[in-house]
Amino acid sequence: MNAEFIRALDKIQEEKSIDKEDLIEAIEAAITTAYKKNYGNAQNVEINIDREKGDIQVFAMKEILEVPENDLYQISLEKAREVDPNYNVGDLFRKEVRPRDFGRIAAQNAKQLIIQRIKEAERNIIYNDYLERQDEVLTGIIKRVEKGIVNVEVGKLEAVMLPSEQTPGETYEVNQRIKVYLLMVKKTTKGPQINVSRTHPGLVKRLFESEVPEIFDGIVDIVSISREAGSRTKVAVKANEPSIDPVGACVGQKGVRVQNIINELSHEKIDVIKWSENIEEYIANALSPAKVVKVIPNKDDKTAIAIVDDYQLSLAIGKEGQNVRLAAKLTGWKIDIKSKLNYVGDHMVVEKPAEKLEDILMELKEELELDF
């Protein structure tokens, strides 16, 4: 131990953000343990490292008694006062000792501890870096696919994407570039572990923020998202400025903005709908692409009946009930779909509607998943 050693600790503190004093105290504790292991566990010793020169001193600590019973950790008052007349019974007697080969043992333990602390510090830096990026989208490269688990390299770490976080219908190939949502960061004995997702609604939100400047700038807000990954997502948006069309801003000219997101999500369908304070209008919008004739809400239990033309019924409900299910998640209301022909109410006129060609085509497109 010398001044060069102290300068090395200063450098470690500067580059690795490890507090020098904490490191020295840890080294002192490690050397104390090493001393007891090599020179007798029953001994009570104190290790001091000079903070400026790096010199190391070992002090044997003994309790002062009138009549000691064990010379390893007790000393008589008479012998203690031969060194310092101010000692009294009950005090701790300190005497510097210089055991053979102790410098080598001290250096080995100091080196091991420093390496260990540097590794711990680097792990903490990486952990904190990714912790700050939690709930963000990362771009990574798939490194391995084993037993249904996809390992994605994202910067300095390999992230884990569990089967439950993988989009149904997507295939994952080694060396494929992919965008993932940083779901969770946790510390383990082997370093930070991160879990990522392709199914989380937050992935859709972050993709819209990156594609739509109005959302990034706060001019347009995403109020709610409901998603069934790999199939369909509904996004409710509102504008914070009256002159802005929130749906138009998200869709983009000729649909280019939303199409970029659809492509990233392996052609998952996305409905961008306008949020409204009026719950009747909001529910009607949420059931898009179906056209709703009337919404009858019950604010006491947050349930609503949505009335649609007979030929719009299957479109409003959606394949296996998906459309109404997503609309309910989006609005937070339980929605029941009723055909106009079959619903009898005080404010409804029961009549057979004239079917419009464009509505029939839209229904066929949704039911048969046609692309036209």
Automatic annotation (TrEMBL):
Keywords: Cytoplasm, Elongation factor, Protein biosynthesis, RNA-binding, Transcription, Transcription antitermination, Transcription regulation, Transcription termination. GO terms for biological process: DNA-templated transcription termination; transcription antitermination. InterPro entries: KH_dom (IPR004087), KH_dom-like_a/b (IPR015946), KH_NusA_2nd (IPR058582), KH_sf_prok-type (IPR009019), NA-bd_OB-fold (IPR012340), NusA_N_sf (IPR036555), S1_domain (IPR003029), TF_NusA (IPR010213). Transmembrane segments: none annotated. It is found in: Cytoplasm. GO terms for cellular component: cytosol. PANTHER family: TRANSCRIPTION TERMINATION FACTOR NUSA, TRANSCRIPTION TERMINATION_ANTITERMINATION PROTEIN NUSA. Belongs to the NusA family. This is Transcription termination/antitermination protein NusA. It comes from Acetobacterium bakii. The lineage of its organism: Bacteria, Bacillati, Bacillota, Clostridia, Eubacteriales.
